[in-house]
Amino acid sequence: MRIRHSVTRFFGILVIPAVSAAAVLYFGYYLIWGTRGLIALDDVSHKLTAQEQQLASLADQRSRLEHRIKLLQDGAEDPDLVEELAREQMVGSTPGQIAVPRERH
Question: Where are the domains of the chain?
């Protein structure tokens, strides 16, 4: 009876710390290397920074295009922009081509 009591006490003393240590290790592992852990957070932060830079670039490009659209609307055409677009269409977008203006008669 005394041996049984000492074995039960021995395992009782060891089981609780072992289960606690296993739980700490399990959650600690997922805290660092898990799908939502610290390493994944760092990776997501880098991806977010890249996406924010891309968004800023696209927003800038959109604002430039909106400005050009406003310059081409009816009644408010900008002659310089119209001439620029006409030259692009006449010459094309091939590098190295030069447009030579002709004298008007």
Answer: 1-33, 36-91
* Closest C-alpha to 100, from 89, 92, 85, 91: 91
Instruction: Tokens 């030069």: give the residue.
Output: 98
Structure-token pair, residue 50: 């890249």
- pTM (two decimals): 0.56
- What is the amino acid identity at position 35? T
Residue with tokens 């006490």, as numbered in its chain:
9
pLDDT tens-digit readout, 85-98: 777 777 665 667 77
- How would you write 37-79 as a 3-class SS string? CHHHHHHHHHHHHHHHHHHHHHHHHHHHHHHHHHHHCCCCCCH
- pLDDT tens digits, one per residue of 70-84: 888 877 777 788 777
Supply 87's token pair.
């030259």
Q: Which H or E run includes 88?
A: helix 79-91
